[in-house]
Amino acid sequence: MAMRVALLSIVVGCAAAAHVNGALRAPWTTLAQETSDINTCYGEKKCPCIGLDDVDGNMMMTVNAKQVSYPLGLGHCDAHDNNRHDDCLTGATPGPNKGYCAQRWCYVDPCNCDIPKTPVVSGLLPTATYQGNPVYFSYATCGGVDEWTESQHKTACVNQKSAGDCQAQDKCAWNGQRCAGKEVMGQCKKKVHGFAVGKAACRCIGIAKLEGSIDVQLDGKTVKYPASYGSECKTWEDGTNPKCTGANPPKWCAEKFCFIDPEECTLAIPPKMSAYLPNAKNNGKPVYYSYNTCGSVDHFTKENNPNACVNKETEAECSKSDKCAWGFDTASKQTRCLGKDLAKARAPKSGSVAAAPLLAVAASVLLAVF
């Protein structure tokens, strides 16, 4: 009974989040992190949702051969089609809050989805990619039931029952018994170019090749960037940022960067928390950016992101920001100020060699006192 109550609380927490101008506003992060893997806001740990949350913007999806606008912040479990998809509007079948319209799902990385129910290649985002691979979706990772694929997604790999039908679909592969997306069948092992989706030690996040736009606040004005902003290594500011449209633009306008997960980036040059999307989240964590993972030099942060934690050179200065933490960075091998999520991920593990100097200092302090 207790588990049922917990799961119900999570569902209500996700569903009750308000959407303003297409952006998700949700205070559930702590709840999602402290409960069971199943049915959380960001999917199971073995198959987490992908994409950004807490951003303003829209993306266009192909629904019944026409373009339909969805909010850009779909990086969480929800009944995303409800009151958006043609079949989920009033008067349609199954209609709002019924059938597959009421089922929770999210987009997932096929190369990071190890659950019994096979994820499915997206039909609504046929050209979109994540780290170089097609985008997949999963109802199962959100605790939902897939009532849509069998009847509404005829070209889905899982619907192909013979080798011939399977091989006729360019995104599918047959293993002798069943058909599924090529990535699920092992193509994830293929190498991808680091300067396209980030170095292996710090891959780019976000869904690439989306149609639509994302709203970025610059100097009090809203500037529309491509919906896939930061999803892969590109010169995203060039020609879009007002500072990068005139004659003699700054160096950083021509530098490639992308957004990354602070917990999955071990490059010596640390990533920084996004200045242009300060509220954006990826699986409940703030979004960081990195030029280094794209093979570029960061000429942006020092002068244009003054509040970046890496710009705070002393512990006293670092401690003034609730987004920063001071400590030993195991990746760069120095004590410095980093964003809290990054600092936690890079902190010395108990018993590690890196932790030894800190323990020695603590021991000497205790000896001096006693």
Per-chain topology:
Elements: H1 2-15, E1 18-20, E2 23-25, H2 29-34, E3 57-63, E4 66-71, E5 106-108, E6 120-121, E7 129-130, E8 133-134, E9 136-138, H3 149-152, H4 163-167, E10 172-174, E11 179-181, H5 194-197, E12 212-218, E13 221-226, E14 258-260, E15 272-273, E16 281-282, E17 285-286, E18 288-290, H6 301-304, H7 315-318, E19 324-329, E20 334-339, H8 340-346, H9 356-369
Query: Radius of gyration over alpha carbons?
Result: 22 Å
List the total number of helices: 9
% residues in beta strands: 15-25%
Distance between the termini: 52 Å
**Count of all domains:** 4
Query: What about the largest sheet?
Result: 4 strands, antiparallel
